[in-house]
Design a protein that fits this description.
InterPro entries: ADH-like_C, ADH_N_2, ER, GroES-like_sf, MDR_fam, NAD(P)-bd_dom_sf
Largest sheet: 7 strands, mixed
Shape: globular
Protein name: NADP-dependent oxidoreductase
Keywords: Oxidoreductase
CATH architecture of the largest domain: Alpha-Beta Complex
GO molecular function: oxidoreductase activity, acting on the CH-CH group of donors, NAD or NADP as acceptor
Number of helices: 9
CATH topology of the largest domain: Quinone Oxidoreductase, Chain A, domain 1
Pfam families: ADH_N_2, ADH_zinc_N
């Protein structure tokens, strides 16, 4: 049996293009003992993947050139030689960017049967939602009386983080890159929202948070981080989740010019990698958040692209913000 996969052709300097990727056809091996054959239904494209296209190790190894990429995927098991992974079950694996794969049964997780779209296991009920939860609960230690600002708030992680913070009772401010996205944030329950392209964060936050910020959930870095640090109150906390504003930078960008605020305001800025929390916290997250997604308290916005051929464009659009919520590539039904 053959599978189609997306490979890298180069390590891009600056913004990747469609020429950074190629569609390849490979022969799958026979299913051996303890293995399963997977038919991909959908897979995720995420900002962290840009770092794996640099050719150097960050917190994970870079993607290889002209070889199989990986990432979160929901698949159907079509052949199994593993006692605990039955044929017909839906599983979560790291076998994204392809339409089929042979995998170790121990390396996949059989998904629970919940009344939600299977794509939500890539988003609100997967690593995306878990990232938002960890940033709020374990890193920022969010309290009900906090004022929190979430950047890239219409994105996959930001939209869930804002809704979870609001559910906890916090006052939530979000920024996004278009008026339509700002309107969507208000529909999701954000107390305040602004378009950072027409209303710079340093101006908007002064108006929308007159008493300052207690928490900042950072998905952007750069000038937005600097603005948030300006308005964080004494003992404010920042969960540093990502810095998408610099992922395509060809030169090191300047850091925030107000780093002395960390000392004078006794701030805590902490970066985090969500996989560090998987073993200790994922079950707690799933128990708390699954009911909220099922009953619609947490709305899981998605942008769906159809077909493996569209995966490179989906990735480019995700990086540029040309989407709403979680970007997912559907491959099968």
């Amino acid at each position: 049996m053959k599978a189609r996969e997306i490979h890298l052709t180069e390590y891009p300097k600056g913004e990747p293009t469609l020429d950074t990727f190629e569609l390849a056809e490979v022969e799958l091996p026979e299913v051996g003992d303890g293995q399963v054959r997977l038919e991909t239904l959908a897979f995720s494209v995420d900002p962290y993947m840009r770092g794996r296209m640099s050719g150097r190790r960050t917190y994970v190894d870079p993607f290889p050139l002209h070889d199989t990429l990986d990432g979160a995927a929901v698949s159907r098991v079509v052949d199994s030689k593993h006692d605990e992974v039955p044929e017909g079950s839906l599983v979560l694996s790291q076998h994204g960017w392809r339409d089929a794969a042979v995998a170790l049964g121990d390396a996949v997780r059989v998904l629970p049967e919940l009344p939600v779209s299977h794509t939500h296991f890539l988003g609100a009920l997967g690593l995306t939602g878990f990232t938002a939860w960890v940033g709020l609960e374990r890193i920022a230690e969010l309290r009900a009386d906090d004022v929190i600002y979430v950047s890239a708030a219409a994105g996959a992680v930001g939209s869930i983080a804002g809704q979870l913070a609001k559910h906890k009772g916090a006052t939530v401010i979000g920024s996004a890159g278009s008026d339509a996205k700002v309107a969507r944030l208000r529909e999701l329950g954000f107390d305040e929202a602004f378009n950072y392209k027409t209303d710079p964060p340093k101006d908007a936050l002064g108006r929308l948070a007159p008493d300052g910020l207690d928490v900042y959930f950072d998905n952007v870095g750069g000038d937005t981080l600097e603005a948030a640090m300006h308005y964080l109150n004494n003992f404010g906390r920042a969960a540093i989740c990502g810095m998408i504003s610099i992922y395509n930078a060809t030169e090191p960008p300047p850091g925030p010019r107000n780093m002395s605020n960390i000392v004078s305001k006794r701030l805590k800025l902490q970066g985090f990698i969500v996989s560090d929390h998987w073993q200790d916290d994922f079950q707690t997250f799933a128990q708390q958040v699954s009911p909220l997604v099922i009953d619609g308290t947490i709305q899981a916005d998605e942008t769906i692209r159809e077909g493996i051929e569209d995966a490179p464009q989906a990735f480019l659009d995700m990086l540029s913000g040309n989407k709403q919520g979680k970007m997912v590539v559907k491959v099968g039904e």
